[in-house]
Design brief:
single chain; mainly beta; Immunoglobulin-like; 14-stranded mixed sheet; 31 strands; 42% strand
Length: 518
Amino acid sequence: MQLRWIRDVLGLTVCAVVAAACGGDDEGSADAAVHADAAGGTDAASGTDAAPAPDAAAPDAAAPDAAVPDAAAPDAAPPGLVTVVIRDGAGAPVAGVDVLFSAPDGTAVSHKQTDAAGTASETLAGGSMVTVAVMEAGGVGPTRMNLFTLGDVQPGDAIVIDGFGDDTPQSVLGTVSFTWPAPPAAGLSYHVTDGCNTAETDNPSAPTDLDISSACGLAGGTQYHAFAQAVQPGTSGANPDAIVAYSLVKNQPVSTTDVTLPDWSTAFASVSVDVVNAPAGAFAVVGDGAFTLDGIEFDPLDNQVFFGGTAAYQLRVPAVAPASTRAQTGAIFGSPAEGFTGGVIGIADVAGVPDSITADFAQYARPATSGTFDTTDPARPVIGWTASGTPGATDFTQVNLSWSQAGEEHHWLLVTNPAEVGPVQLPEMPAALAAYAPSADAVFDSPEVAYLAASWITDDWDTLRQRAGQPTATPPATDFTLSMSFPVFPDPSSPARAPDARSLAAAVRSARAALRLR
């Protein structure tokens, strides 16, 4: 089970922001991460001089307590009834769903199943947790064991989970073979994307196949847009990949399996991005851009700017009459020598192609840095991080943890108060739900923690909590800001090693995926 809001916006686990840390496109691997010189000199990935680095964490970071918080605060409200209602996409109640009610410290209070009205209730103290457990049969793939936890639950809460099971997985609408126009120059690489999937080649004399994703389909999945680029490969962060020319097909029928791309174009518009209120102590402030067509985001590969200060930067936007232009601006904390600790990524979306865009970090989520991961008790791992400043524009906190064991895939998603500062701990699983808990042989992925802020979310946390984290408003088509901050975690396979460029790359890829609106 994945709630629609969690699936579409939080992203159960845009790189454009820290493109050097993620490779040139969404398909980049960790091997395309920045390769920082730990001995100093120039950081080839960011293009910034490795001058004396700031403190590894963002300034004024409040270190988390050494232990997971105990029960609710002394002035908390007395215990009261908490009710959970689960409905499907048509609004009908769903019976038989496992619901775990937990105390503030995560110990199990009770395990119940929803009744014929789709409800389950328990008396809880303030700051408790409610978890929904769902197993997805693997079929041809592994079984998926999913836990969704809502934190900071308060007495009297009536939590409604809508759209249960209403999760159409991404599929392939069809495979299209693209024939390239004549090469505009020698030594280029060629990329084509539908906004979701990307294919690339160094041989434009042969067609290139691309799977068209249902997530980027148009007209009921019968059409798509495809954006192709001829790219001059870069040699460093100071000399990144550069788009030489582009080609666009719009509203192309999926049923046409062989498509010849139009001639290359070199027409671009220039947009100035003004960066204001950048976080103090950031190792680097970086930026790039994207454009949208019918809600699909496309990322020209050379809209990559790496700078250590906060001066304005320029975006080159292909002259394709986009619906909107997106400035994607981020700040990185830590240093190549000491280890990267976190970052903040924000999107400022403006309709059309404006002369300028303001990237205002005061509208973005507050910084989160210095992730820690403790599996001393594998059944209840502890995830920690630090945060600087006040929640500000932050709307809520998200924690993701995935692991594999015994041929199964496990996922835990926690959505909780925007004021949350770790550590947090996986709730205790009672005997009836023991199969959902990590075992001693579990292989963990790096945790993902994020503070998220969106300009269209006007609900306060009390309202969001009643709606299981799903905002009242939906994302607008244009003219909005969306941001998230994230700590970087050590590699679980090498926990003693400071988070390096590879760890940063993994965190940024997750942040980019989480911020995609489609």
